[in-house]
Amino acid sequence: MDYVHVPVGSCVNLLECVALLRSKKNGLLCIVFQIALADLLLFFIALLELLNSYHQSWRFSSQSCMIYKGTEMLTNTSITYLLICLNFHIVTFWNLYNVELVKNNRNPLTSFNDSSSECLVTRNENRIVNIDYQKRKNDVPVILPVIFLWILCLSISMPTYVLSSTVQVRGKTLCILANNYGAILQSLLLVFSTTLPCFLLIVSMLILIYKLFRTSGKDIDRVLTKQFEEIRNLLIFGIVFTIFYIIISYQRHVLNMFSTVRQFFVSEIYYINFPNVYLTMMHYSGVSFRGLLCYLALPSVREAVRKHIFFCTNKIT
User: Fold this and answer.
1) Domain boundaries, the chain
2) Lowest mean pLDDT among 33-47, 133-147, 230-244
3) Closest CA to 39 of 7, 1, 85
4) 295: closest CA among 310, 278, 280, 279?
5) pLDDT per residue as tens digits for the range 251-271
6) Quick one: which of 236, 239, 233 has its CA closest to 220?
7) Residue 274 pLDDT more than 50?
8) If you ran DSSP here, which 8-state letter would residue 191 be given?
9) 186-189: long-range contacts, CB 8 A cutoff, minimum separation 24
10) What is the C-alpha to C-alpha distance for residues 57 and 309, in angstroms, rounded to an integer?
11) Residues in a beta bridge with 270
12) What does DSSP assign to residue 192?
């Protein structure tokens, strides 16, 4: 299989990780940094799968098999949930600036509960100037959601870490997952690693599309012009990123689910073997395209890479 694009994409992700690690991160860049970090781990998983496919046998120890299968589950699940977190972060960001837009576009003649004539004639105007030194909230914290996300992903991948092993099948060593922990627990893992993330991805994408249609051109031409242009670009980025991930990478989760469900009561072990190697190549191509998409679509990522990697101080927009 041709995995040339994987190291190229991993180099892009490595540059982004180093740049974002050295720069001041907001909520959006924090999530992008973790997606790039998970893609770096996925690069090593791709190398092991490449060697396994080339030799048609597992050439490493049983402990390496456990690390390989568990880390594959961890990285794929974490990228999915991080993308969901990214979408809802963009939605929250949109709501934050939408409230600010309503405040700045309030008409002083009609913003009172009384009529405009009463406002002009009978209402005593308070001319005391109150200066608010509080910093205006312009970001959404993501620390607690991200911590919960990683705890959830570790919990989902823990059975794969523990129960993966090597077995001899027809003279070949296979790295497999033992199906000896019951169909109920296995079904729960499939729900939290495949079914629930798919539902959340689609719901978050639909919300992004709804918010994008609500962000009309007349809103951009008003008070918060620059901010709403950035929000609109973030909405488009989230929609494209989600569609790209579902088409390129999420098919692997679906095939994994079908393969597991098909063999629930067949044997005590199962070995997932996808019928089309091109689907596997397409899945790992996401390592390249996700990093490039973040670099091209997010000016803050480009600025961080230029400043901390290429030492260019010119700010780009």
Assistant:
1) 5-105+138-308
2) 133-147
3) 7
4) 310
5) 777 776 666 555 554 544 444
6) 233
7) no
8) I
9) 186/260, 186/264, 189/156, 189/159
10) 40
11) 177
12) I
- How far apart are the C-alpha atoms of 267 and 244, rounded to whole Å? 35
Burial 214-245 (b: 16+ CB within 10 A, else e): ebeeebbeeebeebbebbbebbbbbbebbebb
Q: The domain 5-105+138-308: what is its CATH number?
A: 1.20.1070.10
Structure tokens at 281: 């190549």
pLDDT (tens digit per residue) in 37-55: 999 998 888 888 888 877 7
Rounded Cα gap, residues 82 and 38, in angstroms: 10
Count H helices, E strands: the chain? 12, 3
Locate 306 and state its tokens: 């230029």
Quote the CA–CA distance of 107 and 86 in Å, as a whole number: 34
- Report d(CA 13, CA 5) in Å as an integer: 12
Structure tokens given for 265: 């009561």
DSSP state of 125: P
pTM value is 0.81
